[in-house]
Amino acid sequence: MKIIDCHHHYWDPRVNPHPWLTDRPMIPFRYGDYSAICRPWLPEDHARAAAGWDLVASITMEGEWSPADPLGEARWMARLAQEQGTPAAHVGQIWLDRDDCAKVLDGYATLPLTRSVRHKPRSTPRPGMGPGGLADPAYLAGVAALARTPLMFDLQCPWWHLADLARLREVAPDLPVIVNHTGLPADRSPDALVGWRAALEQAAGMGTVYLKISGLGLPGRPWRLEDNRDIIRTAIDIFGPDRAMFGSNFPVDGLCGSFDTIFSGFDAATRDYGAAERAALFHGTAARVYGLDPV
C-alpha cells in the first residue's frame, strides 16, 4: 500500500526556535511528559520510523515555531524540500487574530510549498463551557482574509467547538477546512463519544470539510487497535474515504506507539474496505486535497 503521511512534523530545536521543545518548565501536554520528542526530527528520522511502508510523500504540519517569526518555519521547510525532496507540502503557521495576518498571508504567496495554514483557536476544557476562539470576531476576520487566498485552513480544536464552523462558514463559505486529529476524541466515555460523533456529522455537512484521522493516542497507554478501531471506522463512515486521510502525527504520537503500530492499525481497521476506498484513505485523498502529484 502506497501511503502519504498527511500530518507529521520536521523540527530541529538545536538551531530553530521551538520554545515548547526547549524552554523549561515544559507546558501541559495531552500525552503528559514529552521530553522524549524534544530533539531533532528530520527526514532521515521519519524515513527510519516508516521503514517497511511505501511512504511516497509527506505533508508537514507547523510545529509551534516561535510566533515572533510566523513565516520562518515555512521558509526552512522550503529549503529542506529543495535539498532533500521532502516534504511534498507544508501547513504553515498563522495568527488569524493578529494585526500582521494579512502581511503573513502575503508572505505565503512566495512559498508555494505551503498549501494550508493552522492557528489553533482558544478552547474550553470541557463541552458546555461556552464558545471557543473560533467564534471570536477578530479570529473570523482573519479567516475571511485567508479565504481570499489560495490557501486552505487546517483546524485543530476539541470536537465540542466544531459547531462553531457554522460561524466560519458565514465569512468563508467556500474555504476548504481540514479537521485535524479526528476531532480529538480523547474522552472515550459513551456520552462523550455520542457528542463526538454528532460534532463530526455536523462538520461533515458544512461543505468542503475534510478529516485527518490521526492523533488518536490516549494518555498513559500504548496505541492499541482495540481502543481506536471503532473511532477510525466511525470517522470514515461520516466523512467517506474521499474526504478522510491517515496521518502519523510523528514524532508526537511516537509517545504512544511506533509508526508501524499506528499504520498497521489503520490497515487492520480498514482491511474489509474496497481497494479504491483504501487507496483514497492511505494516499489518494491527501494527494488531491493538498495538490500533490498523483501517486
UniProtKB/TrEMBL annotation:
<comment type="similarity">
    <text>Belongs to the metallo-dependent hydrolases superfamily.</text>
</comment>
<dbReference type="InterPro" id="IPR032466">
    <property type="entry name" value="Metal_Hydrolase"/>
</dbReference>
<feature type="domain" description="Amidohydrolase-related">
    <location>
        <begin position="4"/>
        <end position="292"/>
    </location>
</feature>
<protein>
    <submittedName>
        <fullName>Predicted metal-dependent hydrolase, TIM-barrel fold</fullName>
    </submittedName>
</protein>
<dbReference type="InterPro" id="IPR052350">
    <property type="entry name" value="Metallo-dep_Lactonases"/>
</dbReference>
<dbReference type="InterPro" id="IPR006680">
    <property type="entry name" value="Amidohydro-rel"/>
</dbReference>
<dbReference type="GO" id="GO:0016787">
    <property type="term" value="F:hydrolase activity"/>
</dbReference>
<dbReference type="Pfam" id="PF04909">
    <property type="entry name" value="Amidohydro_2"/>
</dbReference>
<keyword id="KW-0378">Hydrolase</keyword>
